[in-house]
Specification:
By secondary structure, this protein is an all-alpha fold. About 70% of the residues lie in helices and about 0% in strands. The chain has a single domain (about 15-485), classed as Growth Hormone, Chain: A. The protein contains 18 helices and two strands. It has a two-stranded antiparallel ribbon. Helix 3 packs antiparallel against helix 10 (about 220-245), helix 7 runs antiparallel to helix 8 and helix 8 (about 135-170) packs across helix 16 (about 385-405).
Amino acid sequence: MSVSYPGFKLFSFSGKYRILHMTWFAFFLSFVVWFNHAPLMASIRDTFNLTDQQVKILLILNVALTIPARIIIGMLVDHFGPRKVYSSLLFLSSFICFFFAMADNFQTLAIARFLLGFVGAGFVIGIRMISEWFPAKQVGFAEGIYGGWGNFGSAAAAITLPALALLYGGDDGWRYAVGATGVVIFIYSFIYYLSVTDTPEGSTYFKPNKTGGLEVTSRGDFYFYLMMNIPLYAALGVLTWKLTTLGLLGVGIAQFIYIALFAIYIFQTLQIYMVNSKIFSETVPEIHRYKFKQVAILNLSYLVTFGSELAVVSMLPLFFKDTFDISQVQAGLIASSFALMCLVARPLGGLISDKFGRKNTLSSMLIGMTIGFVLMSQINSSWSIILAVIVTVLCAMFVLGGAGAVFAMVPLIKRRLTGQIAGMTGAYGNVGGVTFLTVLSFVTPATFFLVISCATLIVLVAVIFLEEPRGSMVEVLPDGTVQMIEVT
């Protein structure tokens, strides 16, 4: 059965389509676990008598660790391959999930939630896997299906977990609901390992020449790369500061974290220099070059698209519950409308990119986002719930379509670096999540939505300088021969 254009058999379960379905389901489960707290937050709040600030801190902590995790996982997947790395990620995350479910005080709850950000790095792994199995003319749509159907995990959590918690009953119902998600990813870690391969039979899995940092191809790009790494550490610094202001971290511990972040940045800078030292003595042949500017603009685009998605799906159930004075189950169902659009909007963003151009598609989605969040800022208790849902769905279409448009382009920059590029771009999505949720801790939801709208407008200006991928990318085989990979 063909979908949207000849040759794409979405409902097939053989060959590359089996890999696609097995991988998006792995990402789906990782998202269920990553956001299993959001629809249950009212129950968690009651169990621990949490303040509003403590609730907001849990939301921020949930997306914080994913910033460095996506960078690290990107390096690991380029080196070891998606099959081993994804299976290991799911296996380890199941135990962290159990840890969260058994927490008996806020401190333990916060630590477990912070560690669970690790599972969010799974996204990067599938980006590399899908790019290995699908040609350039289909990769945008395939990555959109992977990302969209995977992101649907947060909606599935919002729809099912409150009801599951009620089924278990009692004050600890949320614990059983959370624990059940850990059991599922534990089992699926073995299923995934036994069911997929990294590449089609006979294909070469390209690996970076060196590990420790992203390879760049000019001196200017080297310094640009170092500059773009700063926000990754700054976001963690902001989180540390926020925890300090709430009294959750002592001043001495906070200072130690600041020094550690700076030391890690310096260490990473040295590693990046070691990987790229040749560019200071030799000129990289034009045929092997790529422009880091492309990576930087996609990073910023993902900051506002996926970053706003992370922030909104984290706060939306509680926002609807408090705004319209409805039950936790009803709020979860209504809030799921945002993430539910993942099933359609993200694949659609990739498909439109494949068919009509990647830059124009991304620009259009960002314009829609800007308008959508302005409208969401106007939602209040005087609105009908139906109208609020309609506005939420329309905004989500552009947000998620924009995320699909970003990753329709990421795999077309440099194949053997796809994991690292996807890791950095994905990490910027979490920088956006941390930033926007930190903003939310100081302002009203209406102002929060307006801040996202303004940030999107700024990124829209940057996208003017994005260049459409055309022609071929060049990769070197292990035996030294050169292979041309079409990107249009």
